[in-house]
Specification:
Shape: flat
Strand content: 5-15%
Number of strands: 5
Distance between the termini: 41 Å
Radius of gyration: 22 Å
Largest sheet: 3 strands, mixed
Number of helices: 2
Length: about 110
């Protein structure tokens, strides 16, 4: 019990030291995974969106806009929601299989 407490304490300590470093290294661009349309302006899939005059480690900015933060947020929400959907579908399949097994084995 003591060793698991120390491992948990060490993990929390390491995470608390690493997260501020990650948060301070802000990137001023993102690469879209799917096409998004904001205020009637389409942004294609795989486009790199960023501010005017911004630097991007992903490559040259192909779509310059002041709303790049909103577009990147929508892109990230799309990715997160897709992963949640996949996880729920896997859970549904597992529960259907467990229910079918229960019906057959009774």
């Amino acid at each position: 019990m003591k060793s698991s407490f120390y491992v948990l304490f060490l993990a929390i300590l390491i995470v608390s030291m690493v997260l501020p470093v990650i948060a301070s290294a802000q990137i001023e661009c993102c690469q879209l995974s799917k096409a998004i349309e904001v205020d009637g302006t389409p942004y294609g899939a795989r486009a790199i969106v960023g501010p005017d005059g911004g630097t991007c480690p992903l490559g040259p900015i192909s779509s310059v806009t002041d709303k790049w933060g909103v577009i990147c947020f929508l892109n990230m929400m799309n990715i997160v929601i897709n992963w949640i959907f996949i996880a729920l579908m896997i859970l549904v399949i597992i529960l259907v299989l467990l229910g079918a097994f229960k019906l057959i084995s009774v």
